[in-house]
Design a protein that fits this description.
Length: 334
């Protein structure tokens, strides 16, 4: 088999590498740090970001990106969205022009306000859109690594590319659906992290299940509005990459973004929360880019805007909640 490449050796990248190797694929797991690659090779375990899960023999850790992507038939992008563009620029000289690009990160690029597959098209050229597939859904790395049943969606404007990813990834442990709405799928994957910060903050303030249910429901409405404004479909947000991932990220203690919100709700400062987390919480950066995208497109994103205010404008969490509750009365839909 041609090698499969996973770009990004955090928890999710490591979990996907293990999963693909266990299915028989030779996997190259790339990290930008030579010392991290050396530790992965020596320990056969990602002790820094995903301890307790051995790397199968079929996983080869590397730090030289051109060596990693040469002859690759499938490249899985798992680097944080903030580093996706630079990673693709470095990989481009050696990246096969027919390699399938699976985007498994979630976010909106700061500045350009592009979604991950849009960054792929920006760097690799418009023709790369036909081989770019967004993979998203409620999928904690820890549970995938343990073989617990998980459902995700593979979305591309090219139906045959989505079907190829479905075939490559699907198993009795991982059910993969397809979609032809990568915009809706990626908007859901990005904004659910922002809404999870709000849900965590509500939990940190001591609010109850009623509050969390309201945040999930109204957060879903925001996600759908932004997806439609970007050219996606509202119905997509009722699926795995929208409602499914939103419920998971807002409710589970494994959620990094919910954890950020929870600690903010308890009165901790953002810098201290992020330092203690030890991992990237995509929702922190996405709150800024989603707020700016909503302004650009003229889309009302009240929860996102309040999270942005807390993270970047010094607003108190209790004040943000009050402003959400005191918004002018309106119909639920329309």
């Amino acid at each position: 088999m041609d090698p499969v490449v996973v770009l990004g050796a955090g928890a999710w990248g490591t979990a996907l590498s293990r999963y693909l190797a266990e299915r028989g694929a030779p996997v190259r797991l790339w990290t930008h740090r030579p010392d991290h690659a050396a530790a992965l090779r020596a320990d056969r375990e990602n002790r820094e970001f995903f301890p307790g899960h051995a790397l199968p023999p079929g996983v080869e850790p590397l730090s030289e990106i051109e060596r990693a992507v040469e002859r690759a038939s499938l490249v899985v992008l798992v680097v944080p969205t903030a580093f996706e563009r630079a990673t693709l620029e470095s990989a481009r000289p050696a990246l096969p022009r027919d390699a399938l690009i699976v985007v498994a990160n979630k976010g909106i690029e700061t500045g350009s306000l592009r979604l991950p597959t849009e960054i792929v098209a920006d760097v690799l050229g418009p023709e790369s859109e036909a081989r770019a597939v967004a993979l998203s859904g409620p999928s904690f790395a820890e549970e995938v690594a343990r073989g617990l049943p998980t459902n995700v969606v593979a979305a591309s404007r090219n139906a045959s590319a989505a079907a190829r990813v479905q075939t490559l990834f699907a198993s009795e442990r991982l059910r993969v659906y397809t979609s032809e709405d990568p915009i809706g799928v990626q908007v859901g994957g990005a904004l659910k992290n922002v809404i999870a910060i709000a849900a965590g903050a509500a939990d940190g303030l001591g609010f109850g299940h009623n509050t969390r249910a309201a945040l999930i429901t109204r957060g879903l409405a925001e996600m759908a509005r932004l997806a439609v404004a970007k050219g996606g479909q509202a119905l997509t947000l009722a699926g795995l990459s929208g409602l499914g991932d939103l419920v998971l990220t807002c409710s589970a203690t494994l959620s990094r973004n919910r954890t950020v919100g929870f600690e903010l709700g308890r009165g901790k400062k953002l810098e201290a929360v992020l330092a203690a987390l030890g991992h990237v919480a995509e929702g922190v950066e996405t709150a800024r880019s989603a707020h700016e995208l909503g302004v650009r497109l003229g889309v009302d994103l009240p929860i996102t805007n309040e999270v942005y205010g807390v993270l970047y404008e010094g607003k108190r969490v209790d004040e943000a909640v009050r402003e959400l509750l005191m918004r002018p009365p309106r119909k639920e839909w329309g």
